[in-house]
Specification:
The chain has 14 helices and three strands. With 390 residues, it is mainly α. Strands 1-2-3 form a three-stranded antiparallel sheet. Strand 2 and strand 3 form a beta hairpin. The two termini are 41 Å apart.
């Protein structure tokens, strides 16, 4: 009996990692890059929080590791699922995401760190539905655009209208929180998927004009909060008010610049220890990398993110299935834009919008969403072009 049980265990293990198994068909280079980003992120979270968590200096780092482990479990569930089932489930996933966004603006919603974007679950746990709306939107957009017109091979106008409607509803609910950064990500995802789907140029032009008109209306009608307007104006000249609206940008530049080439060493950053830059464990975690790991460490983080993006692009290009290719392309747009904005706002080329750095910043719901998105990419690689993939 013991020998038979041992044989069964060995048989299961050999099937799991053997030739042609789902694990062997995953993109190992992508996973190595994500693992490296997660390790670096954990060290940076630890360094940026230990000075003000004197009772338990490793508390935030331990929570970050827990978030990574939960995200890894979600990744495995999604990666081992036939991604084509997500095409059928996309409407229900999207509806669930909308319900979560609606709950935020009810009495169930909670304000954490000045942002009314959360739903508390008790026991110190909370979720941010706006983060989960990103993968849900990617899925519903791909579902709407999966069947082009037979004559032209391009998406139908009705399909494009459904996409714009889904994006409009999601973006409106997110802006009610308000969360401008996530709204920008949602619009970029939509624009990217529409381009990848081969939407007619005049329709794309109409989409971008509509987006520009909506942005102008939001600005002119005063729908943005004063601090959001100040963040955009501070981008032009942060030195004009270094202790006011330009404080975050100025301190971020000081922190990154002080690291020079090799950095001051992990746990030895004066700007980080002194908490001169707000939210250094979340939105401004790249400043910790710049100060303590220097230019070389910062470039390493950027290069690792680049590896993830390039491997995701490869998956999108080689996928034989239109739905899978659109999902992968939407995730590429999401990760690329979010990474660019996060790094850009710390070096003064983008406005401060409160967008976390994928796989590095502290934040449970963001980590869960990111890992589920990677699970989709790996599921597409496993089943979307397995016979062709090198």
């Amino acid at each position: 009996m013991i020998q038979q049980a041992a044989l069964r265990r060995r048989s299961f293990a050999s099937r799991a990692v053997g030739q042609g198994s789902p694990v062997r068909r995953m993109d190992g280079l992508m996973m190595l890059a994500i693992a490296a980003l997660a390790v670096i992120g954990t060290l940076l979270v630890w360094s940026s929080t230990r000075s003000w968590m004197s009772v338990q200096p490793t508390g935030m780092a331990k929570k970050h590791v827990l978030n990574i482990l939960i995200g890894l479990a979600l990744f495995l569930v999604v990666a081992m699922t036939d991604y084509r089932r997500l095409q059928t489930a996309a409407p229900w996933i999207f509806i669930a995401a909308l319900i979560g966004l609606l709950l935020v603006i009810t009495p169930m919603g909670a304000t954490i760190n000045g942002h009314h974007s959360w739903i508390t679950l008790g026991g110190g746990f909370a979720v941010q539905p706006a983060e989960l709306a990103k993968p849900a939107l990617v899925l519903i957009l791909a579902r709407c655009l999966v069947k082009p017109a037979e004559k032209t091979g391009r998406p139908r106008l009705a399909s494009v209208a459904l996409c714009l409607g889904a994006t409009g509803i999601t973006a409106a609910l997110v802006m009610l929180e308000p969360d401008l950064g996530t709204t920008m990500v949602l619009l970029v995802i939509t624009g990217g998927v529409l381009v990848l789907a081969g939407v007619r140029k005049r329709w794309l032009m109409a989409f971008f004009l509509l987006g520009g008109a909506a942005a102008a209306a939001v600005w002119s009608l005063g729908l943005l909060k004063p601090y959001q307007v100040a963040r955009f104006t501070a981008l032009i000249n942060p030195a004009s008010d270094p202790r006011g609206v330009g404080y975050n940008s100025t301190q971020a530049l000081v922190a990154i610049g002080s690291g020079e080439i090799f950095g001051k060493g992990l746990f030895h950053g004066g700007q980080t220890t002194g908490r001169f830059v707000p939210e250094q464990h979340t939105d401004f975690i790249f400043t910790v990398a710049g100060e303590e790991l220097g230019f070389l460490g910062s470039v390493t983080v950027v290069l690792l993110l680049g590896v993830v993006l390039l491997r995701a692009v490869r998956i999108a290009r080689q996928c034989d299935d239109r739905f899978g290719a659109l999902v992968a392309g939407g995730i590429v747009c999401w990760f690329a834009f979010q990474s660019f904005v996060n790094v850009g706002m710390t070096i003064g080329i983008m406005p401060i919008t409160g967008i976390p750095l994928p796989f590095v910043s502290y934040g449970g719901t963001a980590m869960f969403a990111n890992m589920m998105a990677v699970g989709m990419l790996q599921a597409i690689r496993i089943r979307g072009y397995g016979r062709r993939a090198a």
